Amino acid sequence: MLFNTFNFGGFFIIVFAIYWALNNNLKLQNIFILICSYFFYGCWDYRFLFLLIFSTYLDYFTGKKIYASSAKKHKKIWLIISVGINLGFLGFFKYYNFFAGEAATFISLLGFKPNIWSLKIILPVGISFYTFHGLSYVFDIYNNKFKPRESFFDYAAFVSFFPLLVAGPIERASHLLPQIEKKRIFRYSNAVYGLRQILWGLFKKVVIADNCASYANFIFNDYNHFNGATLLLGAFFFAFQIYGDFSGYSDIAIGTARLLGFDLLKNFSYPYFSRDIAEFWRRWHISLSSWFRDYLYIPLGGSKVSKLKQVRNTFIVFLVSGFWHGANWTFIFWGLLNAIYFLPLLLAGRNRNNLNFNDGNMSFKNSLINFGKILVTFFLTTIAWIFFRSPTLKSAFDYTYRLFFKGLFRKPTVFPFDIFILIVLFIILEWFGKNDDFALARWGEKRHPIIRYSFYYLIIIALFIYSGKSQQFIYFQF
Amino acid sequence: MKKFLINILFFAAPVILLSWLFDGILTKGIRKSQTGDVKVWDEIFGGKINSDVVIYGSSRAQFHIDPSILEDTLGLSTYNLGIRGHSYLMAKYRHDILLKHNKTPKIIICSVDFISFEKRVDLYGYKNFAPFLDDSILRKATKQYTGFDCYDYDLPLVRYIGYKKEILGSLKYLIYKKQNETDEFSKGYCPYQENWNGEFDKVKATLKKIKANIDSNTLVVFENFLEEAHNKKIKIIFVYCPEYYESKDFIENRTDLVNIFKKYADKYAIPVLDYSNDTLCNDKKYFYDAEHLNVRGATIFSSHLAHDIKTLTNS
Question: Is A467 within 8 Å of chain B by CB?
Answer without folding.
Answer: yes
